[in-house]
């Protein structure tokens, strides 16, 4: 049973104070015991893990499961629980159910392969910025840049028609909206699964040079994987492949515009390592997955002197871990609560850690490097067209970002 001091989770952000900072309570927990029980939507009380070293240790521990079918799994909400039940896939599974599908996809998302797409990302980004510069001011950067670039890229990679992007984005919003019901998310998942299934059917007969065609011809036609399993795989790639990058582009732009000296470092350098470092620092500083990675203990183990029992839920606060001074402060970069694009930040956990870490992270890195460096170089006078406090932030979503970001130049 919880005590009166048990915090309800997720904790509310203080957007008025700073829209980029995690809730202040996380820093207090991190500085004290590092772990504490919290109460989530269904009344259960999983452990909240806040320190960088502890988060990595838990995510890499053999006694920890990502399987959402475990009855003790601490789901983010009833709606997300229902959606994952309808469209469960490898990233919410363990063992062979995770390892084999991931092996099939890993070769599609290697760093080398994603780097080979850089020229394509550059063309898509330049086209979007051309449209911005020839349009009226102010402009909504979410609509004109943040959403289109990753959506075009993931549609092109998968071989999904961009013509359906509006509907895909609508359905993805249902997945992450706090107001969605289990019926909403189940219906959205079913519609997207039908879309993926039809595409797989088409590509099994008329394959082209894209990921869904390779899955259809190499897995579906020989009977190695079912149509349903492949459709679920395609759904995850399509939705996650644009939603997260889009939010990072919008929120990262607002962050850089609020830190003009950091934006200047990025704008004035043609060294690709500067852009790469800026992206890693933005990923660390912002951590848009702000409702924690969820896991469940399948055996007893200990972390940071605390005994975790089999059946205990675990919430890994990666936004707190990425602000941990023990991991990110040194004699040259003292304050992890400040943005410093020269900080060595590649060891952040924005993409998770261990065998379940984000499959598409290399694509996201290329997209963000190209977008931020190009945007601030091509529009050097870019500025917010609304007060930072009036930006409509996605506090109502499980993935943080901005619903709209008005900019001018």
UniProtKB/TrEMBL annotation:
Stored InterPro entries: Cyt_P450, Cyt_P450_B, Cyt_P450_CS, Cyt_P450_sf
Keywords recorded for this protein, A-Z: Heme, Iron, Metal-binding, Monooxygenase, Oxidoreductase
Domain of life: Bacteria
Gene3D superfamilies cross-referenced by the UniProt entry: Cytochrome P450
Residues forming coiled coils: none
Pfam annotation, one family: p450
Protein name: Cytochrome P450
